[in-house]
Amino acid sequence: MSCLPLLQVTNLRVVFDLQHGSQKRIIDDVDFVLNKGEILGIVGESGSGKTQTVLALLGIHIQNPGVVKGEIKFQISDSRLEDLSSSHIDKYVSYSKGKITEMYYKNEKRWKKSIDQQYGLHEIRGNRIFIMFQDPKSYLNPFWTIRKHFKKIVPTRSLDGLSHEEVMIEALKKFNLPIDQVPASYPHQLSGGMNQRVMIALGYACKPDVIIADEITTGLDIVNQVVVVKHLKHIQQECNLSIILISHDLGFISKLSDKILVLYNGQGMEFGPADIILDPKQTRKHPYTRELMEIFNESHKQGYISGEPPRRDEIINGCRFHKRCREYFNNPVLNCSKNAPTDFTDLIQAPHQVRCALFQD
Ligand SMILES: Nc1ncnc2c1ncn2[C@@H]1O[C@H](COP(=O)(O)OP(=O)(O)O)[C@@H](O)[C@H]1O
Ligand code: SF4
Ligand SMILES: [Mg+2]
What we know:
There is one protein chain. The protein is an alpha/beta fold. It has a domain of 96 residues. 31% of the residues lie in helices and 24% in strands. The strands form three sheets. The protein has a seven-stranded mixed sheet with strand order 8-9-10-3-11-12-13, sandwiched between helices. It has a four-stranded antiparallel sheet with strand order 2-1-4-5, with helices on one face. The site of adenosine-5'-diphosphate has 13 residues, from α1. The site of magnesium ion has 4 residues, from α1.
């Protein structure tokens, strides 16, 4: 068995061009490690960069392609990690001291094709890393029946000698979807909860190494949320696959995750084992995580974090959380509005890492 991590993300950055000609770091310094069979929860308020982080992993920057930098290493065999980041850079920009020092536009088609062939990346996206979104209808094709989705999406390598039809029937049965009705149906003929289960069944049938589930329980009633949690746990245990679970709801994340990454305004604020991060006795905790936990435990005085989340185009100097941080308000000598806490990884010995001046030496 390999002792390499399945996915290792170091210093991930995504930079977008804004309309008025400036650039914005949408994701800045995100680091995490995901091992085989683990569930990583990524949590943060809306706009904190959860979706952009996973889109960067897969190279799906649909609108306004940005720059993806940093290292995204994926274990493609027992002894080999491959850097995926080079596969989906649409444009390189080098930054130094906040200024662009170098810009390079690639020849899209030729470049992408050669990189894909070199690393077999078309094999990795979709096949080995499978993503599910909040709204299954944005994932499922309205012109395809569910049967056609299985035919088109499940790769041959995942069939294990069976036909697409056989694999579909097994997967639909596993997730309690009626096999006399569902295969010939179009997504609009099924309920939201059923489409969600079709998406999970597709993920199961593809036998990926990693499933990314982006806010997939948001908008579902509590009964369907419980069903989704049960199914995800079931797939993860049966197939020993890894899951990246994304939600703004720490309660949901805490039910399943082995590890947690807390994002705020595009930066990793805390990363580590879930039992350490969620331990109420743990004092080395990022002030933002502390507030999320208090809200989740209903011990928060007001039930929401004071102050506004950062605006889309806002550039915050110093610590990105300083305008809302209780610790800073109570202790202004920290100088957090000017000095950003230094590197995430250097603050506390791995595996638990926090980006906060309170814990710097
Ligand atoms: N097309 C875009 N152009 C500019 N900024 C964007 C675009 N899409 C997302 N963003 C910004 O990227 C940041 C992260 O967004 P996102 O990853 O969708 O957050 P989350 O999934 O945590 O709600 C937000 O500040 C959002 O405003
Ligand atoms: S660095 Fe300062 S402002 Fe930021 S979270 Fe820590 S104490 Fe709060
Ligand atoms: Mg999102």
